[in-house]
Design brief:
This protein has 14 helices and 6 strands. Helix content is 61%, strand content 8%. It has a single domain (4-358), classed as Up-down Bundle (Rhopdopsin 7-helix transmembrane proteins), CATH 1.20.1070.10. The protein is mainly alpha-helical. α3 (63-91) packs across α12 (346-355), α4 runs parallel beside α7 and α6 runs antiparallel to α10 (267-309). The strands form 3 sheets. A two-stranded antiparallel sheet has the order 1-2. Strands 3-4 form a two-stranded antiparallel sheet. Strands 5-6 form a two-stranded antiparallel sheet. 39% of the residues are buried. The protein is globular.
Length: 411
């Protein structure tokens, strides 16, 4: 077995005694007598009896090589993809919209998680001891919760933004500004840093013995009840409550879309139909991102709660490997969002190609005749070429060329 459950408590993976995973770690001249308090409330110790003979290194299992490789692939895809998302929104003015600012915040959270947390999680599988010191023990676990909280709260903000854009398209314009999106994103990070402080306080190094002296990175709470309360708090704050906001937003969106709308006449009908279609596409894209996050983290949270509240829960090799797969699934979520944007976000896909024309074998600058726009009478009767994003466009603006329309922000 790997050192996964002995080495740290990265989102609940350090919650099992070594002897539960390795029933027999003895040699003919060496016997183990496991003793000590629950690792959530006190130091883990394995006392020895008999002759203190040398013991060989434990068999960490195939996951000691497979999981770090999988994590490396996740990091490579996730960092490159999310960096591309940030670059495209920064580079092209038409991509700077309220919705895309939230998407950038989501990409920043994913990159921070992949860079600062995943490499240390990979090392847990390949070693039997925490080798990075007390500061990194606290920082890695603290920052892991910070980034997960920031991700889930940003998804909730994205979903609520879609609700405002579709259900209250006019009255919400005063609230759906780029400045307010930046302020909300900053508040999300501030709240995530503050809400994760208990991890920085209670995460610590613990000395133990398993095939020799070991150092573990674990959370030590004053009581078992405190540990259980914090786990419930973590799941509620980083999973249940934000996803309830997202689910409620999309239920209200579906109810609104099912109601027949008053059909405008003339050019307004074409314009509003186009805007409504764009908003629906973006709503579907954001809903897909929320659903993937929900499914990716659900198994990990369920296993953590089960192990913490059911002290008789067995830790068999099968459960161990289920836990490993659940952890890989949750980490992989940080790399899938750019893929979703590429398949479902028409504007992102077109601007990905425009940003790297050699990779996609297209011209970086579209021909002049491909930039034609339809002039639509504005409020004053003057003809205007539409250049606003779908959520910001008024009834007098609309892009009709394929290139220009594709470059609009799906906001």
């Amino acid at each position: 077995m790997s050192g996964l459950f002995e080495n740290g408590s990265l989102f609940g993976i350090g919650d099992v005694l070594p002897t539960e995973l390795v029933p027999d770690t003895s040699t003919e001249a060496y016997n183990y007598n496991a003793s000590g308090k629950d690792e959530l409330t006190g130091n883990l110790s394995l006392s020895t009896s008999g002759t203190t003979a040398a013991v060989g290194a434990p068999d960490l299992g195939p996951e000691a090589y497979v999981v770090p490789t999988v994590f490396a692939i996740i990091c490579a895809i996730g960092i490159a993809g999310n960096a591309l998302v940030i670059y495209v929104v920064w580079r092209y003015q038409q991509m700077k919209s309220v919705t895309n600012y939230y998407i950038v915040n989501l990409a920043i959270a994913d990159i921070a998680f992949l860079v600062c947390c995943v490499p240390f999680s990979a090392s847990v599988f390949a070693t039997t001891s925490w080798n990075y010191g007390l500061f990194m023990c606290k920082f890695v676990n603290y920052f892991m919760l910070v980034t997960v909280l920031a991700t889930c709260l940003t998804l909730a903000a994205l979903s609520f933004d879609r609700y405002l854009a579709i259900v209250h398209p006019v009255s919400s314009l005063v609230y759906r500004t780029k400045g307010k999106a930046k302020a909300i994103s900053a508040c999300i990070w501030l709240g995530s840093f503050l809400a994760s402080i208990p991890v920085a306080v209670y995460q610590t190094e613990v000395k133990g013995y398993w095939y020799g002296p070991q150092t573990y990175c674990r959370r030590q709470f004053p009581s078992l009840e405190a540990a259980q309360g914090f786990m419930v708090y973590t799941v509620l704050m980083s999973y249940v409550i934000p996803l309830m906001v997202s689910a409620t937003s999309y239920i209200l969106i579906l109810l609104r879309l099912r109601r027949p709308a008053v059909q405008p006449e003339g050019n307004n009908a074409v314009i509003q139909a186009h805007q409504a279609q764009q908003k629906r596409k973006v709503a579907m894209m954001v809903a897909t991102v929320v659903l993937l996050f929900t499914l990716s983290w659900l198994p990990n949270h369920v296993l953590n709660l089960w192990r913490l509240f059911d002290h008789n829960a067995p830790m068999t090799p099968t459960i161990h490997y289920i836990k490993v797969v659940a952890l890989c699934l949750s980490y992989a979520n940080s790399s899938v969002n750019p893929i979703v944007y590429s398949f479902m976000g028409e504007d992102f896909r077109k601007n990905f190609k425009k940003a790297f024309p050699k990779c996609f074998k297209i011209n970086a600058v579209a021909p002049a005749n491909d930039q034609l726009q339809l002039a639509v009478p504005g409020p004053s009767g003057n003809n205007k070429a539409g250049n606003a994003t779908p959520d910001e466009a008024g009834p007098s603006t609309l892009k009709t060329s394929s290139t220009s329309k594709d470059m609009q922000t799906s906001a």
